[in-house]
Amino acid sequence: MKERRLERTPVSLFVGLGQEGEPPGRTRNISLGGVFLETKKRPDVASLVDLWFVWGEETFVGKARVVHHADDGIGVAFVEPEPDFLKALAEILGLDA
């Protein structure tokens, strides 16, 4: 059975994989469940990665699972995101927090 996807919104935001300070990739679209990241990095599908993004004055860090590869990036699903991480995503997406 195919999983139901959350609505994705085109958003261009710098998001890093790995340690904060490494060159980030750029999002193509994002939802409360995950993000497509335009990047040359190709962690294995199903692997867990750390990701980070800056919103306002804060840096938000979370875990994600790589769900697919594409020619120009990877799709990741957030894994148990913290409430502040979800709140920042909701603000980015223009949703009521």
Give a written overview of the molecule:
With 97 residues, the chain is mostly beta strands. Helix content is 11%, strand content 46%. It has one domain (9-91): Beta Barrel (Thrombin, subunit H). The protein has a six-stranded antiparallel barrel with strand order 2-3-4-7-6-5. Strand 3 and strand 4 form a beta hairpin. The model has no long low-confidence stretch (mean pLDDT 87).
What's the short version?
With 97 residues, the protein is mainly β.
Task: State the name of the first-level CATH class.
Answer: Mainly Beta
Main sheet: which strands, in order across? 2-3-4-7-6-5
Query: What's the count of strands?
Result: 7
Summing up helix and strand content along with how strands pair, one would put the structural category as: mainly beta
Rg is 12 Å
What's the mean pLDDT score?
Answer: 87
Could you list the spans in which at least 5 consecutive residues all have pLDDT below 50? Answer: none
**In CATH, what is the homologous superfamily?**
predicted glycosyltransferase like domains
Distance between the ends:
30 Å
